[in-house]
Amino acid sequence: MLLRVPVEFYAIEPPSLHELLDPELQHLSRFTCTPDEASQGFLAIQSNLSIGCGTFKTAHRGWITLHHLRDAGLGTTKNELVVVKRTFRDLSKKSGGQTVYTRYSSPEEHKIILKEANNLYWAISIMGFSYSYIYSFDTLDHQDCPPIPDLRFVQAGVAISYETPAKNSSKASIRKTYLLEEYIETNSDSEFVKFVHNGSAVPLLDIDDAWRWIADFLCFTQHIQYWKSGEMVFLSDLQGSDILLTDPQIMTSPKIAEGADLFADGNVGAVFEQFPDQHVCNQYCAWFKLPVL
Questions:
Q1: N or C: the chain end with fewer CB closer than 10 Å?
Q2: What is the pTM assigned to this prediction?
Q3: What are the structural domains of the chain?
Q4: Is a pLDDT exceeding 70 seen at residue 212?
């Protein structure tokens, strides 16, 4: 079943990490759906067919068409293929094997999706900072330099659909909130892989796996982030392809905001504190002369 709904679309386009951390630019420190930045359009969703299911989100194929196409990111073409993610509270199986999802209320769903969007908003900037550090070296062209994968997080945005306003009201209430992400194409040469879990700083792939070098590289970027942030933050739950990453978790020190959950629920303080003991420096850490933790 193809569900077609009018939506407001808000692109996730963070500034640099330096700007995110600038106390004089507090308005940039969190992803928000600012009405002045909304793009109007239509979202078509294969709502009855899930292409993936995590611990609290389902993923569906969808197509976004904005009335005025954007210059970059999602929404640059008509009927652009996207992954549409929705949250759920619980799931159960019917006798025929069909999975039934219990969805959150509209306000709860909106809050959770915005939290996920903010998580990705920061992750994009943190990864960008890591690459800036790497590209500051003048030894990248050296024959002994380990290969540097050209990775980035998916382009993404939040889409909101509204109820039809009541006759005596000019304000419509939110009906559904979706997280839209760039579709990650996979094939025999490029499969979807989880490289690093959020519960451990050790690569998930075996040493002889064809994609182990990317897992090693991502563990190296964790080392950069942990070190350069003063042992305050690093990215984890790193997964995707050899080009695109999705669904990251931002791990923060319990010292920040008195241990408050600043990002998604996978931000576990006890796991963060294990990072120096779990991380094993690899060829990337050695080549770029990172300090031993």
A1: N
A2: 0.92
A3: 2-127+152-182 (3.30.200), 191-287 (3.20.200.10)
A4: yes
